[in-house]
Amino acid sequence: MGPVIIGLVGALLVVYLLIFRQSPEAPVGSDGENSPQTTPTTAVASPFEQAGDMKVGREVAMQVCSSCHVFPEPDVADKFTWSNEILPRMNDWLGYGSVIWTNEPGGDQVLASGKVPQEPVIDFADYKIIHTYYLTAAPAKPLPQVAKPPITVGLKHFQMRETSYRNGKPVTSLVKIDEKAHLLFVGDDTTKKLAVLKADGTLAASMDMPNPIVHLLERPDGYYASMIGSVFPSDRAEGELVRLQGPSNGAQGASDVTRVLLRKLRRPVESAVADLNQDGREDLVVATYGNILGSFSWYEQMPDGSYTEHVLLERPGAVGAKVADFNGDGKPDIVVAMAQAQEGISLFLNKGRGEFEEKIIVQRHPAWGTSHLEVVDLNKDGKLDLLVTNGDNGDTAMFANCQKPYHGIRLYLNEGGSQFREAWFYPMYGAYRAMARDFDMDGDIDIAAISFFPNYMGAFKESFTYLENQGDLKFAPYTFPESIAGRWITMDVGDLDGDGDVDIVLGAFNRSFGDVPKILGDTWEERGPSVLLLENTIRKAPAK
User: Average pLDDT over the chain, rounded to whole?
Assistant: First the structure.
């Protein structure tokens, strides 16, 4: 344990005591999921008192809300969150909003698009009915998580290692392991730099970038970097997809952007490469998150090397996209996870010659919080499955994060014929990313997961969870004591040190909005690490 983490331990111990004092009913070793709600709820004015009024309220809410997205049941959040977060946001889409769009990043483009109404689209009477219905029917406190095994503190074959690299107040946008070169790439939003670390965590190089890098795709000719433009909500088309030529060989402070592949993207977060139309040229798939504006597209490479956009979904919210042959016909298909209002997962089956057929795997309500997509054959039946997290709670971060029992990790098993079935769910407040590998090298697939919005006043051990596969879709959860040393927003896995096992790297966004004890937030900003290494020691363990 290094000096930075040693300095954190005292503060973390205070946080532990603070948490347990405020949740005295949570026994040592439990997650405290049922700890009392600490945020007071608002009083509800003029509740419906008659069953008939509730019926009318539900009918009006379903008619209006379902015209745009999956109908959200009142119990998706508590009364406080509905009153202070969700309904005020809904107002903007009904023409009763108070947002001054000219003050928002890219707001002039939002107004020009006409997507946000500037006049009421429903009668004020119906507007009041919808508000009253949700404020009456919503629970006073968030519903509890379903039961799950207690999280064991202590990782059996990982050793935590800090690095000497740290930005002032870390806003890490990327961690990426290069297994061939045994290097770690770290992006940061504040400095707009791409740092290159050696396997021991020391700095090898640092490069200035036009804007923050959030994804690196390794290619034979270098890396394709997704530069988001703004990590915070924005409708400006400032993102780019660029090619970096061997950033590990770059000089200190230099930029290795050799070619801009795509410009004026709305917050791209991930890219993939494949010859989608089978014309012998590699095409691009780019997941652009956007904000109010955005779309999900693939880009056809033309004979002159330029790209032509083909829109697959005319809406924002793509958090991740992968290319693979899901139905075994030899053609690359596309799967995308969508957030924002129309949340869900869509599979685009390749019909040949650049034509795709959308198959909706699942649709969710707007508070679902889809955050990450991973493709893996978890049950090793030869068919590619989907591992998906939902835990983005940014829409309820202004006052206090409403803990949502449906947040967590889900496995959708591929049953053939382009059919997927939700086969496993692990509840995890604020789940932000899950990555599946055989970490313990016992022949089955385990899962490492992070939460960006855990319940710091109860289930704080969910900041990082290692799920060891026990067989039959049962997993044993573990964490490590220093897991709340940072607020983890990104993660990568791979063999960083070249010893043949899979290591884990965590990247921190150390800001304390939401339900974060002040002492913990102050500690993050003053001493919290930018990255934390979990070195897999299974190859180093003595033979029994």
Answer: 88
